[in-house]
Known about the structure:
12 helices; Rossmann fold; binds 1,4-dihydronicotinamide adenine dinucleotide; globular; five-stranded parallel β-sheet; 2 domains
Amino acid sequence: MKVAVFSTKPYDQEYFERYASSEDLHFTYFDSPLNKDTANLSAGFEAICVFVNDTVDKETIDLLAGHGVGLIALRCAGYNNVDLDAAKEKNIKLVRVPAYSPEAVAEHAVALILTLNRKTHKAYNRVREGNFSLNKLLGFNLHGKTVGVIGTGKIGATFCGIMKGFGCNVIAYDLYPSEELKCQGVEYRPLEDVFKEADIISLHCPLNPDTKHIINKSSLEMMKDGIMIINTSRGALINTPDIIDGLANKKVGFLGIDVYEQEENLFFKDLSEMIIEDDLILRLSSYPNVLITSHQAYFTREAMEEITLTTMKNIKEFCSGSTLTNEVI
Ligand code: NAI
């Protein structure tokens, strides 16, 4: 089967090519993201493969259908960038990689917390320049702090376990509390209580109409002064102008984000020689207590392998007409 892979980076190609020949799949790699302007590249392909920042809206899906594409294989878990109704209407199947490595994302959330707190990024630069001063590097013990987790699915649950290991008091909110986590000492609380009681809040819920801008002016007002907010889930969980106000008035003490609402114009690209025309990210980057990584939480060897193998399995199931194990319905 011929598959067009959009938004390809060298590391995606490397992993796909490692396994492609043994699976009788033929991949063609496009650097460009998928959107209505690039959808015509799908001509002649039965399946396409996309990632988090491809725009799979109705207009794009209509064009894909016109070219005879029957399968959209997401090489990620979230599918907030796909118009599900439009895909259904055109009878295009949609598959995803539901869990490639909850540990990779949970561990990255912890890396953001530790870096923001203990300022190892600043210490690294200082020591390299012969500055051995400890001024302004003061951190706090994680032990005994209250960590609020919003969304305790695969990643959130893994994160809860790690934070329990640090000796934190873990409180959580999810529409479907986990009995297993309760047994491990995670306390489920109403969302407002999590906002009010946590010293650190980490977001691990999906982006949907209920969770969009879950961190906004009114939720920030409920939080402790100096709150640390970590978002490795989806950018639009946070209202960016509201969090910038929170940083300016010192309500927010630390912000660690691996995702950003307008990331599709920036992330995964080397823009170091360009003028960045996004005032919000420039403003965020100007705060010393903000740490931004460009959607790299998933990026481990283990996760890349799982993404590649599951995507290939998903496509092969479609080829053979088998039940689609990872179909998004
Ligand atoms: P999951 O589906 O296992 O867990 C999501 C949890 O959120 C579920 O327990 C669900 O009940 C809960 N939830 C749904 N609506 C909620 C609401 N309104 N309030 C509170 N909880 C709610 O998903 P998983 O694998 O844990 O992934 C979580 C998110 O992480 C994904 O949706 C994706 O956006 C993001 N992600 C980010 C990556 C990165 O590299 N930064 C990589 C992979 C996923």
